[in-house]
């Protein structure tokens, strides 16, 4: 998608602080972190939101979670704990219409988040 900021990051048109990249996903640190560790994992293909998942693209979600497991282990927060957040739609707090997963850790996280 032409005007999608995450698609532009995937293409290298907008710089990011990459943590991980493979042929399916890209992970990078959030530019406005809400925790000592805060990164995003996005599919490289444009999927607007969780509502856009179907039998043709749903396997990307399992891949995202495998990548998250790898990254949190490397960053040393796997044992202490972390939160994975996927916002869906306007009322769900989604501000970029490209499915993405926030991973937050490195401190105690309260519930409900607000």
Task: Briefly characterize the structure.
With 114 residues, this protein is α+β, with helices and mostly antiparallel strands. The chain has helices spanning 5-11, 59-75; strands at 18-21, 25-29, 37-43, 82-85, 101-105. It has one domain (5-105): 2-Layer Sandwich (HIT family, subunit A).
What would your notes on this structure say?
This protein is α+β, with helices and mostly antiparallel strands and 114 residues long. The chain has a single domain, classed as 2-Layer Sandwich (HIT family, subunit A), CATH 3.30.428.10. Helices cover 21% and strands 22% of the residues. The protein is built from two helices and five strands; from the N terminus they run H-E-E-E-H-E-E. Strands 1-2-3-5-4 form a five-stranded antiparallel beta sheet, covered by helices on one side. The longest helix is centred in the middle third of the chain and has 17 residues, at 59-75. The protein is globular, with a radius of gyration of 14 Å.
Name the strands of the widest sheet in spatial order. Answer: 1-2-3-5-4
Count of discrete domains: 1
Low-pLDDT ranges: none
Instruction: Report the average pLDDT across residues.
Output: 96
Number of helices: 2
Oligomeric status of the shown chains?
Answer: single chain
CATH class: Alpha Beta
Q: Structural class, from secondary structure content?
A: alpha+beta
Largest sheet: 5 strands, antiparallel
Predict the CATH topology: HIT family, subunit A
